[in-house]
Amino acid sequence: MSADDWRRGMSVNVDSVFLGVKHALPLMRESQPGSIINLSSIAGLIAAHNFANYNASKAAVWMLSKSVALHCARGGWDIRCNSIHPAFIRTPILDDLAVNRDAPTVMAKLARQVPLGRLGEPDDVAHAVVYLASDESRFMTGAELKLDGGISAM
Fold first, then answer.
1. Average model confidence (pLDDT) for the chain?
2. Catalytic annotation on 54?
């Protein structure tokens, strides 16, 4: 991997989250309570031999979220920060994996890696976001919510 590719991955996956939090916090402090929800990946918690850049960048989002949670708590602000770590979700990103290959075969192979035996759906992530944004999660901060169909339990 080139240094440029490394930097691009970090910029897209980490710098974007940092800048979002940096610019949102002053506004959020003015209208508390609030909830910051950062999307990471199960790849930020479980490494793979061929995804060093992606693994490292998504792990950085995980740790940044924890640091932001502690920063807000120490400041006495009613602002929570958590991260969501999905595995294979049926989105166009998965379609990119199947370019020039038999898409149903590729999707079935991915689903076999998930203990629940299926891919996640965008609504699965949306429901997690709704929960973390709601008052029902008001005591949850600095946590990671795994949406991986059981992959991390193996």
1. 96
2. yes
